[in-house]
Design brief:
192 residues, mainly alpha, Four Helix Bundle (Hemerythrin (Met), subunit A), two-stranded antiparallel sheet, globular
Length: 192
């Protein structure tokens, strides 16, 4: 079941017109090839945006009080985290998700800690580590059987979702939102 956004407009007094729109990014990849394509496309777009923006982009405010560098540090962490979870699951390790000392409803606090921990890292280092995580995830996608990748229940930590969904959420969606924030920061810079 997909969640749909409902948009309602008051046209005249006491007349409300609603329409439902399907979010474009809600669909999960149906197979390995689609997952690889989606992750790769999102990655290529993010890299292209960063390459065209220049090194000074790292200091631009991207969202709230986070710089572009901070946004990428968080994406780096989540990319490596999903790879860690899969590798630990394959070896039968017990996991604490999303990270020791954090519950899922505390991800804003976790992300803030990630930003703080990365405060001394350069944009170049963060981009390099993010790229390493991306390559690592691609290798994991290729190494998983179709059942491990696409069927729920192979990894207890994944709950009712297939690992492909976890990969997509922690790579494709992360890279896409990072690109959106970077584009917004670049537009703001141009308008000043």
């Amino acid at each position: 079941m997909h969640l749909h956004a409902r948009h309602c407009y008051v046209v005249e007094t006491l007349t409300i017109i609603c329409h439902v729109s399907r979010p474009r990014s809600m669909a999960m990849p149906a197979d390995r090839a689609e997952l690889l394509h989606e992750v790769g496309t999102a990655w290529d777009r993010l890299e292209s945006e960063l390459d065209g923006a220049g090194p000074e982009t790292g200091a631009l405010v991207a969202v709230d009080d986070w710089s572009v560098r901070d946004v990428l540090a968080v994406r780096r962490w989540w990319t490596h985290a999903v790879a860690d979870w899969i590798e630990a699951g394959r070896s039968g390790e017990k996991l604490v998700l999303p990270a020791p000392g954090f519950r899922w409803n505390e991800t804003p606090r976790l992300n803030a800690e990630i930003v703080l921990d990365a405060s001394e890292a350069s944009l170049e280092d963060i981009r390099g580590q993010l790229a390493e995580g991306y390559v690592r995830v691609l290798k994991i996608i290729e190494s998983l059987s179709d059942d491990e990748l696409l069927q729920a229940g192979h990894f207890s930590w994944a709950g009712k979702w297939p690992v492909s969904r976890w990969i997509s959420i922690n790579t494709t969606r992360q890279y896409t939102t990072a690109r959106t924030y970077i584009r917004r920061a670049l537009r703001a810079r141009k308008s000043t």
